[in-house]
Amino acid sequence: MSWLLGYSKTTYTSHSSPTPLETKSGSKTTLPEIAKSSIPPCRLNPFLFNGHLQTMYTAVKDPGPPIYYKRQIFDSNHSVYPGTFAVDFVVSKEEGEASASRMKEDKDDTELPERTTNFTAKEWQGISSDDDKPMLIALHGLTGGSHEVYLRETLYPLLASSTQPWAACVVNGRGCALSKITTPQLFNSRATWDLRQVVTTLHDLFPNRPLYAIGFSLGANILTNYCGEQGASCTLKAAVSCSNPWNLEVCNTTLQSTYLGLHIYSRTMGKNLMGLFKRHRDQILQNPGIDETALLASKYLHEFDRHVQCPTWGYPTEGAYYRDSQSVDAVLAIRIPFLGINAEDDPISNKAGLPYQEVLQNPNTLLVTTDWGGHLGSFQLGGGRWFATAAASFLQKMHAEVDFEATKGVDGGKDVNMGGLEGKKYPIFDPNHRRLILPDA
């Protein structure tokens, strides 16, 4: 009955010997120690006393904190998946409002989310900086964008910090957040290539800025895959995953097994995806493998994936797509401090798919779970989401205390077999092995 007082149990799962991290004061700490000292106790709204209520409450309109963005359209440099995608950079209120006035004067009627304007060519050419402020890269959930309240609630305390204000940008999935697509492909849950290009670009534009990343739901799955694929070459200082549906096949099977899962959650996500299809119909139907009649008869998430994602990306079934793009195995290959935050009663990112055993094998990772909170919910009495506060507090602590340069070369604890043949003996497990074969870029 602890929920009557809003108490939610928080559990920390980690390797028995976490990788030591050097602090700026010269002492040593670990990822679990930083998390436990920065993440507040989980106290939620007792009127939203289970995962379904917490999840459904995300549909209630909430203005959230005001954040202003300027959008830059990137031309993809991937040889197989060309096209464009939108990245929204946080700017000040004054700059955002001035840009909105300029667009109005220029009669620029580009359709954009609220408080979002476009960079001019001149502005983008002058965006680079030698400052060393920390910068956060965010990836939103399915069909979302930079406008999402849960994302803005996470960014805001970092942007408004009185001790160290952060910079931030949001990598929008292709076709999301009112962006246009110029090829038949939307996003998918394995699409790490746009994030990879953004990270490289940010290092070029801001060579002194330490980069961090956070992903939400589908964006968390993409971020986890990216960190695993990069392995020891990952240049992010740390990353956070929120409400990640780590094991996509398990999560989708579970969704289809219950009335609420199928007819509420899967149907809602399917409806949102159909909205993207209708918006980008002409581009998507350039793929001759898509049967529009079958697609228009679809109601659920897995049906959309079957009729759009499979023929778009080359998967024979939606199950093959889920197995190939899920991030649960990628956890084993991560070589940077990596925090996962999930609620065990999340009806979408099901507890059965959480990577408890994988995290126990990797000293660079930590999984923080609450027994209550739903999917991207964790609403507190009086407003705000607990996971947003937890993620922001953790990132602030990491940046303030860890000396990442000094940490390089520190013994990482028990090695994890992350694949590759050099110096290894058979049998070899490669957590990044994919069935869909692509060139590097």
TrEMBL record:
Occurrences of domain AB hydrolase-1 (ranges): 134-375
Subcellular location: Peroxisome
Active site: 217 (charge relay system), 346 (charge relay system), 375 (charge relay system)
GO-annotated biological processes: medium-chain fatty acid biosynthetic process; medium-chain fatty acid catabolic process
UniProt KW Transferase keyword: yes
EC number from the UniProt entry: 2.3.1.84
Residue segments, region Disordered: 10-33
Reaction it catalyzes: an aliphatic alcohol + acetyl-CoA = an acetyl ester + CoA
Pfam families hit by this protein: Abhydrolase_1 (PF00561)
Role: Displays enzymatic activity both for medium-chain fatty acid (MCFA) ethyl ester synthesis and hydrolysis (esterase activity). MCFA are toxic for yeast and this enzyme could thus be involved in their detoxification by esterification.
A GO MF label: alcohol O-acetyltransferase activity
EC top class, as a word: transferase
Keywords: Hydrolase, Peroxisome, Transferase, Virulence
Protein name stated in the entry: alcohol O-acetyltransferase
Keyword set includes Transmembrane helix: no
Predominant location category: other
Family the UniProt entry places it in: Belongs to the AB hydrolase superfamily. AKT2 hydrolase family. Belongs to the AB hydrolase superfamily. AB hydrolase 4 family.
Pathway in which this enzyme or protein is active: Mycotoxin biosynthesis
Bias type Polar residues, positions: 10-30
GO CC annotations on file: peroxisome
Domain of life: Eukaryota
